[in-house]
Amino acid sequence: MECHLFNLTDKPFLVKPESLGNEVELVVLPNDFATLPAGGNNFTLSSAGGRSEVALEKAGLELDVERRYVNLKKSPRFRWNNVSMPEDCPWRIYRDQSSGKRVDILVLPKRALESFLSDLPDKTPLYSLCLPGTHDTVAFYGWPITQCQSATTPLFVQLTNGIRVLDIRLAIKNRRLVAYHGQIPQRTTFRSILCDLHAFLTSPTSARETVIVSIKQEDFDTRSPKVFSGLVREEIEAGPGGRDMWFLQNRIPNLGEVRGKAIMFSRFGGDGAEWEGGLEGMGIHPTNWPDSAREGFTWMCKDVLVRTQDWYRIPSFLYIPEKTQLSVEFLLPPPADITERVLSITYFSASSFPLATPTIVSTGFGWPSVGLGFEGVNSRVARFLLDAIKEDVMLRAWVLMDFYDQPVGSGVVPLLIECNFRERPGDAHGAIAPDRTHKLNWSQTTKIMS
């Protein structure tokens, strides 16, 4: 089987395949690849100091990271997996079996998930970022119909895992705001959500981060939007950090403006009379949100065109490939005839009972790699991201997922975060421009949906 190792870091690698004994080492330059010999599933990987123009002879390379032994165990369920490595390993390694005769190994920098925005410049507009998020962020109860996140990933854990877009659904109970998903209570108060946000945004590790907080009213059919809007403001002002913790302007800011702040994304009704500045003082405020529009929809936030994909009412799990295809298309650059600045928002979540519950849609079931099951959206998205990163395709969107941490050890969130550090024109934080002689067939990406 043909095996390619992609070095997607900024330093040269020394690779010693176990099948070649102890005397042979391959040099792989930054943003380049090497073909490993047959039986190269096990090898030793070392990072080398020095410039990327270093000669191919290993003489002159100075090792600045101890050697790491890599054992490429194949996932029993999927055609790809992230390789288990010690916690202090400086890389994230993915194995992607793109065909029956080819395996790709991607070695990426191990970025700090809890503080990755700290490494991006202040001038970066938020519409130009790829931000992982969770759909129905605190929906931990009501399996299999209304649970959308694992109970092992409470809000603060999500934030430290790199989640930067939250989807908070609230209802009024005894003059207090409590998390709900539809009619099912989620045992979390808005007050506790505010406490977790404040703790994260004031921690020395993550004080330079920002979090987009979408707030939606779940009981709009029985409770006044005006009362709901007023309660949101009251609880924010009474909560830790108060209003000073929030960015409440109706525009897409630059990163430097909102470090250490939560950005309001108001998906609740009313005329804004409860807020200073009215509709202009309750954060980013969508002008329309059609229910489960298959092809997506657009709206304007000042001079930014917002493309949104939120088709969620799929008939059964057989529509997972179509759902995935429509969702990932919003990660790609917009059509050339769009001249406005563009923010893309895409939901990987979908649900219908009984054949497309959130768990089935997001994680699939069985052993799809051997034809005994069905691959879920999250795994398909991971394969799309791996192909895009190999191809240096620019991906940008705010992405909201169900069960973001599954399949177990999937590593989808780190792949989304890595997109912010690749192909950023004119930005010193972008990856080194690739100089490869090979080119994978990008059109094959669509085949991951089948």
Question: Which class do the helix and strand fractions yield?
Answer: alpha/beta
Order of helices and strands: EEEEEEEEEEEHEEEHEHEEEEHEHEEHEH
Helical segment count = 7
Strand content: 25-35%
Q: pLDDT under 50 segments (min length 5)?
A: 50-59, 424-448
Basic shape: globular
Give the total of domains. 2
The largest sheet is: 11 strands, mixed
CATH topology of the largest domain: TIM Barrel
Gyration radius from CA atoms, angstroms: 23 Å
Round the mean pLDDT to the nearest integer and report it: 89
- The total strand number stands at 23
State the assembly state of the protein chains: single chain
CATH superfamily of the largest domain: Phosphatidylinositol (PI) phosphodiesterase
Roughly how much helix do the residues carry, as a percent range? Answer: 10-25%
| CATH domain class of the largest domain | Alpha Beta
Which CATH-level-2 architecture of the largest domain?
Alpha-Beta Barrel
Termini gap: 23 Å
Give me some keywords for this one.
single chain; 450 residues; alpha/beta; TIM Barrel; 2 domains; eleven-stranded mixed beta sheet; five-stranded mixed beta sheet; 16% helix; 28% strand; disordered C terminus; PLC-like phosphodiesterase
